[in-house]
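Tokens for chain A. Residues wanted.
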């Protein structure tokens, strides 16, 4: 299914309960996480589902946008966005991009989790309310490669940590 893709990674921010969304948006405001997202996804393909695309609402600079949807029409998308109907079509991009970044939402995370090499997690030290969650993942199958904790400040109202996890056997 993923022939030729060197690294299929996901980037996600979630709270203590792995909450990732509320009403098709983020349940928090955390500028440091947005900056971190920008740095990690810069000049890489970002792969998202329809709802994530609609919540972002625009093409992000210096990234290759791939939207997975069975219902969106390509005519309704910006010309800089590639629409795919099946996950298997990701392999067509593999030759040019050694790392592809899954950026959400919940259904896409669930579908790709078994194939991920790396997880970039922003763990927010709060319990918030919302309606979309990152799927369960067994941390015994992963190795924490890096973790940087940050305290809340005037711009970022919650303590958080940036973590990089690699699937055991891929370290």
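Reply:
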């Amino acid at each position: 299914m993923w022939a030729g893709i060197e690294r299929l990674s996901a980037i996600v921010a979630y709270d203590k309960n792995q909450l990732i969304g509320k009403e098709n948006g983020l349940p928090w405001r955390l500028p440091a996480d947005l900056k971190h997202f920008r740095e990690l996804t810069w000049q890489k393909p970002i792969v998202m589902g329809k709802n994530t695309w609609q919540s972002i609402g625009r093409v992000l600079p210096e990234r290759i946008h791939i939207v997975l949807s069975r219902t969106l029409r390509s005519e309704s998308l910006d010309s800089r966005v590639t629409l795919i109907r099946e996950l298997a079509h990701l392999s067509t991009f593999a030759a040019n991009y050694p790392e592809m970044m899954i950026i959400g939402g919940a259904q896409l995370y669930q579908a790709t989790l078994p194939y991920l090499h790396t997880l970039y997690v922003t763990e927010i030290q709060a319990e918030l309310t919302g309606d979309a969650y990152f799927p369960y993942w067994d941390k015994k199958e992963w190795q924490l490669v890096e973790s940087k904790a940050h305290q809340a400040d005037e711009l970022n109202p919650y303590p958080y940590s940036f973590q990089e996890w690699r699937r055991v056997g891929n370290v």
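The mean pLDDT is 93. The beta strands are 7-14, 19-21, 45-49, 64-68, 81-84, 99-104, 118-124, 132-133, 142-150, 160-167.
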